Amino acid sequence: MNLQGIAKFFDKNMIYLIALSILSGAAVGWFAPEFSKGLKEYINFTLFLMIFPMMVGIRVEETVKAAKNLRPISLSLLLNFVISPLMGFLVALAAFRGHPDFAAALLLLSVTPCAGMVAGWTGFAKGNVALALVIVALSLTLSILTIPVSMLILAHSLISIDALAMFKGTILVILIPMIAGDITRRLIIKAKGEQGFMNVRPVLPPLSMLGMFGIVFISMALGAPRIVSIWHSIFIIVPAILVFYILQFAVSVWLARRAKLPAKDEIALIYSVTGKNISLAIGLASQFFSPLTVVMLAVNPLIQMPVMAWILRWSPSVFRREKAMQ
Which residues contact 230 (CB under 8 A, 6 or more apart)? Predict the structure, then answer.
């Protein structure tokens, strides 16, 4: 199987692989609790394995292009760093008042920016891929500062937050892998050329997913007794996450229409708001919160992926609407 085949296998089966990580981690934690305790020392390794490949594919220098398309860029920052966190806070307040671990998960998800995958979804929907890439790079860079501040402001009434520790954590989880990834990408391009890097790029998402599966497995193993005892909480978690995504989609469409964005830019904006960086949220959760928080975030792809696919089916209506108005 070539690199493209590996990437397609992981993309196609991601939900099943996450479910396998959850179930196998719970089994190991339940039947071998002493062995599970030793897994904690591998979290940093799996965290780096998850974040580093993702950063190799991010071109931070793309952020300089933001000035050329200020309107959608400004809207994306407003949505990702102001409106989305506020929506996450309101949903967490309504659904998880007595469940601080779950509240932390939803808040982390809401303050985390978009992932690199939104460029792929934007391309499938015939949107502005270049704009999506700029939003991803800019949002990820700004999130080093915005995540600790947003969590401190919004989460303190629901959960305990150490903002200084979280700021140090974002440097560990985002900045260091970002620098290492940028250097690695430049070295690959220097040695193999741009085409050589493009040949390597398909294997990066699967490597990142392996790290994510590892963190989910370890978190499940560490928290298995408590997690299994509250399995019924899934009936609260799934509706709350779904409401959060519906609100994000509705507000981003409304703002895009108010700003009269071209159809291609509107699709890029909607995906860049809806496609949260679950891997990054899981990485931060594994550093600062309980296994319950990690597991709730691990459930998130079961909702996010179908939502992204639905937007893909909905997107032709944006172009029909634009054509009808011309």
Answer: 292
Burial annotation 68-94 (CB, 10 A radius, 16+ → b, else e): ebeebbebbbebbbebbbebbbebbee
pLDDT of 67 over the 60 cut: no
Task: Decide which of 321 and 4 is more confident.
Answer: 321
Domain extent for 135: 3-318
pTM above 0.70, yes or no: yes
Domain membership of residue 293 (yes or no) is yes
Q: Are 117 and 305 in contact (CB under 8 A)?
A: no
Does pLDDT of 45 surpass 70?
Answer: yes
Q: Residue 71: which CATH number?
A: 1.20.1530.20
pLDDT more than 70, % of the chain: 91
Q: Which residue from 270, 300, 256, 265 is spatially nearest to 282, judged by alpha carbons?
A: 300
CB 46 within 8 A of CB 215: yes
162 falls within a domain: yes
Query: Torsions phi, psi of 261, nearest 5?
Result: -75, 145
Q: What does each C-alpha distance from 252 to 76, 108, 261, 265, 271 come to in angstroms?
A: 9, 19, 11, 12, 9
Q: How many domains does the chain have?
A: 1
Q: Is 265 in contact with 128 (CB distance < 8 Å)?
A: yes
Q: What local confidence, expressed as pLDDT, does residue 265 receive?
A: 92
CA distances from 92 to 3, 58, 230, 291 (A): 40, 31, 18, 18
Encode pLDDT of 109-161 as tens digits: 999 988 777 877 888 888 888 888 888 888 888 888 898 888 888 877 677 77
Q: 196 in a domain, yes or no?
A: yes
The one-letter amino acid at 312: L
The answer to whether residue 192 sits within a structural domain is: yes
The one-letter amino acid code at 53 reads P
- Residue 288's SS3 state is helix
**Choice between 45 and 103, residue whose per-residue pLDDT is larger:** 103
Tokens at 52, concatenated: 């580093």
Residue 84: closest CA among 209, 255, 216: 255
SS3 114: strand
Residue 151 CB partners (closer than 8 Å, separation 6+): 107, 108, 111, 161, 163, 166
